[in-house]
Amino acid sequence: MTIRLETYDGGLYQLPVLLRWDLTYTGNVPCDSMSVTCLYDESMSEVLPKATRFTACQDGEVMLQGVVDAYEISLSQQGLLATVEGRGMAALLLDNESEALSYERAVLEEILENHVSPYGIQTDFQQSISGNNYVVSSGSSQWKALQGFTNRFGGFDPHFTREGALVVQPLWGSGRELRVDGSTPLLSLRKREQRYGVISEMLIQDKVQGITLSVPNEEFVQTGGQRRHVLYMPRSTANSRRYTGEYQIAQSALEQLEITLELPFAFAASPGDRVGLALDRLRLSGSYDVVASRSRMDGDGERTEVTLSRR
Questions:
Q1: CA nearest 3: which of 46, 38, 44, 55?
Q2: Cα 117 to the center of its chain, rounded Å
Q3: Pick the residue with more confidence: 243 or 101?
Q4: CB atoms within 10 A of CB 282
Q5: What is the pLDDT of residues 232-265, one digit of tens each?
Q6: Beta strands in 26-114 (DSSP E)
């Protein structure tokens, strides 16, 4: 693994041999992240305070490009060390706040121009999306402005590639088909199911028009779930009330089931990949989406922690 830093005044610097590294991929939010540690030398004193961007490469392949968030110099039994931390390019959209805007007729190209293009992010999209009466609330991040639009009018969240490009297409199911069975060299496995946080009913109240709409989570209710949330909306349409209720319910259920696998090699899977489980001893089978993966190297060698769920 190599790390190249870019400084705000146009300089380039490659960190020396890494003692440990840690790359986590999610595709969107929370955004991809990086942490690396190497031996410190005096040449870094001019570089680290100026570093704004990084590129992580493995065997000539870009593994992550993004924004430098912090650096740290520390003294330990290993010697004088430097640690650099950063996030993927989604950080620029998460960190910057949008103005409050109302679109009578919004199209994808206009949304990208207002909320993405100012940050120099490369964008890939194959077809346009449009919709009426889209509102970006005060205090929303640029990411929320974009994600709210694509989710409402396209039914999906956009995502970022490792190279830092924004892809305005669905992530889930876009990657490889992988298999984990009895012959797979697993280091560990954990399955967790939780009911806490899952919404059984969204009660949407439009105070302006005096309208109340109940949106139930039928599947959760049938299994004994009881967790009602109430949301007050300004003047709205029946479609927007229904969409908001269904969206909140879907978001609450994303982490209901989680399976975590650890494999003894790096970059075993990426978000968007799909894993078929056939682990008879644990009675685990079926197809699951990779929602996050963490590849790292330290004194124990290389490994990948893969988080599976259903999307």
A1: 55
A2: 20
A3: 101
A4: 11
A5: 887 777 777 787 888 889 888 887 899 999 999 9
A6: 33-39, 51-58, 61-76, 79-88, 101-107
- What is the three-class DSSP state of 195? coil
pTM of the predicted model, to two decimals?
0.87
Quick one: which of 114, 124, 126 has its CA closest to 161? 124
Max intra-chain CA distance, the chain: 67
Cis ω before 30 (30° cut-off from 0): yes
CA distance 250 to 256: 10
User: How close are the terminal C-alpha atoms of the chain, in Å?
Assistant: 31
User: What angle separates helix 142-154 from helix 238-252, to the nearest 10 degrees?
Assistant: 110
What is the average pLDDT value for the chain, to the nearest integer?
94
Q: What tokens appear for 240 in the block?
A: 């927007």
For the beta carbon of residue 171, count every other beta carbon within 10 angstroms: 22
Angstrom distance (rounded) from CA 158 to CA 145: 12
Q: What is the DSSP letter of 30?
A: S
